[in-house]
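Attaching the record inline, Q. Sequence:
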Amino acid sequence: MTEDSGDAKRSAAGVDRRDFLRNTLVAGGAAAAAAAGATAYAQTQQPGRVPGTTNHYHVPATDKTVHWGYFSKSLKPVVEVASGDFVTIEVLTHHANDDASRMITGDPGAESVFYWDKQRKGVDRRGAGPMQPTLFGRGAGEGLGVHICTGPVAVRNAEPGDILEVRIVDVKPRPGANPQFKGKSFGSNAAAWWGFHYKELLTEPKPREVITIYEVDTAGERNWARAVYNFRWTPQTDPFGVVHKTIDYPGVPVDHKTVQEKHGILPNVRIPIRPHFGVLGLAPSEADIVDSIPPNYVGGNIDNWRIGKGATMYYPVAVPGALLSAGDSHASQGDSELCGTAIECSLTGTFQLVLRKKATLAGSALEGLAYPLLETQDDWVLHGFSYANYLAELGADAQSKIYEKSSVDLALKDAFKKMRHFLMTTRGLSEDEAISLISVAVDFGVTQVVDGNWGVHAIIKKSLFAGTV
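Structure, as predicted:
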């Protein structure tokens, strides 16, 4: 390639990318305006269009609108929307029963989802395991997948090969419904057996699982969380009579008469609030019932705190309708989610869904996109995993093998390859140019090391290309 042709290629790539970003920015402003104009959507228990609007839908979190612990291409959509429509989705944390009085009591939606007596559960299947708990005896679904996912939302005319653009217009904590805790929201952090720290403990007793309850100001007057108390997990007997010695099945009610609450912890520590969705993504095509824990090429449990208000996610569509679900809502999280969870806190998000048809992608930054791409005002963030598509790469036993084979090395290599491709295709760089730029200007971070399919993200600043004409 001659110098002139290289310059032409760079110029074309830059124009394509700038046009793409400009369109996104304009549409994003329209999204915020539309959301602001639809402030009074009906607080009903039925999903549907917000009264008085033509393109804003509301999906409450109830026992009829959630799927617990799995994604599935066979799920019936709770609503279908058109490209450009808005949808407000309520998301419940699967850790709410760590302190039911603060996170469930008085909330009809949460009570319907977490209901569990000797006869039945409000939501029986919890995980991608068998409905009859013949593997471990934990319960239906066996806890092989843990997140309460609201949805799915179908996008009309979405087909494999398309890209779904998900603009996160707003994210708000779910207010507590118990009058005792008016004006507050709460979340739970579990330092659990699947955490990276678990076999590296210094103090006795070893091992141990510790739950820490945090308080969040629902009114938004305080942009930080504070720790309320913690307790060590003790064996809990669920309403069906199954004893859970560890945190091995989601939604088990914690009997606080069996634990010792330790108050006054983390005194004078303020944790910055950055509400986001740990799980946001589409249904994969490779299997019918897929564990919600390992992230994949269609998104899911990425656990990147940057997937919050103002960000835009791009996902490759794998099945008709795309089938978007949201779950694993967090009040805050650090990169790596090291001990096993974030501050798991119920949230409500408003999204605008824009369908990018495959036929329109040629020459754009989205052409050939095969992984979840995050865009913020300042950055592009690419997500690498130990296995880019573990369901296809690891064969019939992929959903069990993935927990044995993940490593940060593999995830870093995947993130590097994706960033190299991104720079060569969207900026017109040569491989040598891309590699040099990656080394001197791209920040790699450990997204999470607790989700089976470990993650490394690569961040590149848009300002690097400010000199492009």
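The domain at 10-174+272-465 is CATH 2.60.120.580 (Jelly Rolls). The chain has a mean pLDDT of 92.

More tomorrow.
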